[in-house]
Amino acid sequence: MKKIFILVPETAVPSGVTGPRYLFTTANQFLQASGKPPLFDVRLVGQTKDVRMQDRAYSVSTQALLPDTGQGDLVIIPPIFGDMSTAVQLNASALPWIVEQYNKGAEVASLCVGAFLLASTGLLNGKKCSTHWAYYNEFRETFSEVEIVDGGVITEENGIYSSGGANSFWNLLLYILEKYTDRDMAILASKYFAIDIDRQSQAAFMMFTGQKEHNDEAVKLAQDYIEQHYHEKFTVDDLADRVAVSRRSFERRFKQATDNTVIEYLQRVKIEAAKRSFESTRKNISEVMFEVGYTDTKAFRNVFKKITGLTPIEYRNKYR
């Protein structure tokens, strides 16, 4: 019997608590229906008996307090809601418990921005992690010793798992279910819960808004120009001249400030504009390609797929 502890943090997102419980208890029902014994002992655990979640709009009763849980096989850390630093502070007393569970042999899985709690334990230092794409910058600034897997849906390293944003946590749960049972069980669960079992990237959902939380005014001017004139032809030299900085210094400062090269930034702005066009208009691929400043169909397709994980046709058909 696998003992699964679902931590119920203060300010938890309710679906991050109910989803894992639902999946693993349903897996028990599938096992019993096939004549096998249930495999999962699923328990909700927390710092208090009654935990209020998501601006106190919901409450859940835990089945055990952290000091009384005993040793588990898997600890699941749901997403937290609101300001991340405040949420971590509210759950500070749970952090040593997570570390103790891991040190005694439990695996640990964070769902979405539950990664902020997991990273606060120090267990992720020197390891890779995924979280919601909208929190990448904040996570990097807060946990510089952890490597964010850009666009990743699932990471696994030394018994520590993490998932990408929002409903991506279902992919991680299926991944763990398959590991604990078999492929057939994971496929059955994916059909029952209507989940795309092998999705590996959240890139298609990511919205690029530019990294402007820096103090380099010359770079900000260049970013503004790119975002307003992305459909026009200009070079890196043109941008450097426009902000009166040498090209070499401009490229170095741009990369340092935005974590993108100038070309990468321009590509991401163009592709973001193309995504919005596919979502809101009936223009064909060529029309959108020319609209955002590409003239080479192959180059447009390759860059689009690199950034979103989908071809332009796939994206248009999926999100229009």
**Backbone shape:** globular
Report the sheet with the most strands, covering strand number, pairing sense and barrel closure.
7 strands, mixed
Radius of gyration: 23 Å
The end-to-end distance, rounded to whole angstroms, is 45 Å
Number of strands: 11
Describe this structure in words.
It is a single chain. The protein is globular, with a radius of gyration of 23 Å. The strands form three sheets. Strands 5-2-1-6-7-11-10 form a seven-stranded mixed beta sheet, with helices on both faces. A two-stranded antiparallel sheet has the order 3-4. The chain has a two-stranded parallel sheet with strand order 8-9. The protein has 320 residues and is α/β, with parallel strands linked by helices. The model has no long low-confidence stretch (mean pLDDT 90). The protein folds into two domains: 2-203, 3-Layer(aba) Sandwich (Rossmann fold); 217-319, Arc Repressor Mutant, subunit A (Orthogonal Bundle), CATH 1.10.10. Helices cover 47% and strands 13% of the residues.
What is the element layout, followed by pairings?
Blueprint (H helix, E strand, L loop, with lengths): L1 E6 L6 H20 L6 E7 L3 E4 L4 E4 L2 E2 L8 E4 L6 H7 L4 H9 L3 E4 L4 H6 L7 E2 L6 H7 L4 E2 L5 E4 L2 E4 L5 H12 L2 H10 L24 H13 L6 H7 L4 H12 L3 H19 L4 H7 L5 H12 L3 H8 L1
Parallel strand pairs: 1-2, 1-6, 2-5, 6-7, 7-11, 8-9
Antiparallel strand pairs: 3-4, 10-11
Helix pairs in contact: 1-6, 6-7
